[in-house]
Amino acid sequence: MIVVIDGPAGSGKSSTAKAVAANLQIQFLDSGALYRVATLVYLNSRKNNRSFFEQLEESEISFYFKKEKFHALLNGQDVTEDIRSMNVSDNVSEVASDPKVRAYINNLMREAVKHDVYIADGRDLGTAVFPNAELKFYMVADLETRAERRYNEIKESDTEVTLEEIKQNIAQRDDKDSNRSSDPLKKADDAIEVNTSDMTFEDQVAFISNVIKDELSKQTNK
After folding, report:
1. Residue 216 belongs to a domain
2. How many folded domains does the chain comprise?
3. Angle at which helices 86-96 and 99-112 cross, to 10°
4. What is the three-state SS of 34-103?
5. Which residues pair with 135 in a beta bridge?
6. Domain annotation covers residue 211
7. How far apart are alpha carbons 85 and 96 in whole angstroms?
8. What is the CATH number of the domain that holds 20?
9. Phi-psi category of 217—alpha, beta or left, where left has phi over 0 and alpha has psi -120 to 50?
10. Which of 19, 44, 45, 207 has the greatest count of CB atoms below 10 A from its CB?
11. C-alpha distances in Å from residue 25, one per residue of 17, 28, 119, 122, 151
12. 4: nearest Cα among 140, 88, 130, 165
């Protein structure tokens, strides 16, 4: 079973999905982190003057979820902190908009969820990657709230970043993600919208957890 949470950058998808996964003892898949790993490959390819796609195809991207944290690995090395840098953030939308990259990451995710119960977050999971997902949520929040969340998330690892830079980055990513030709960001017709601007974190986790528990109960009783 796969449950997906889509929405714009900073809407609370990843933190909520991780908490729900821990709460319900199910697996978590962070699609955004995987695109960030691909972006790290892209940045490295520019340094060593190699073909990006050649280097991506030769790379081994793996991941695991433990103690409410999604760990991303590139060729066996943990890059969980590296992929949250502003340099990666500034380039991830461009990399993720490439159809070849999307196909590569989408196949990686589809293989991962063939077994067990997963909750995944991203931008086009309910519309493009997992259109037949048993449950779909679409999380939204105003720009100011999203920028503050992202700032608090990365300020310890990137002390030079400012709130205004984060806000500009998110606004630019909103525009790119919504207007890209390949799998643009949009709400699936059958998704449940969750506006987190005025919700506490505990409330949004509880709401989504309860909906999933109801669905799991229905699946069990079939």
Report:
1. no
2. 1
3. 100
4. HHHHHHHHHHHHHHCCCCHHHHHHHCCEEEEEECCEEEEEECCEECCCHHHCHHHHHHHHHHHCCHHHHH
5. 3
6. no
7. 16
8. 3.40.50.300
9. alpha
10. 19
11. 12, 9, 11, 20, 28
12. 130
Residue pLDDT, tens place only, 155-185: 777 778 899 999 999 999 888 888 887 778 8
The span from the CA of 185 to the CA of 129, in Å, is: 12
Q: What does the block give as tokens for 40?
A: 């790290």
Q: What is the pLDDT of residue 133?
A: 95
pLDDT of residue 21: 94
Residue 100 lies in a domain: yes
Supply the range of the domain harboring residue 173: 2-203
Query: 148 exposed, middle or buried (CB, 10 Å; 0-12, 13-18, 19+)?
Result: middle
User: What pLDDT, on a 0 to 100 scale, did the predictor assign at position 52?
Assistant: 94
Structure-block tokens of residue 183: 């799998």
Mean residue pLDDT across the chain: 91
160 phi, psi to nearest 5 deg:
-90, -10
Give mean pLDDT, residues 61-75: 91
Section 30-43 average pLDDT: 95
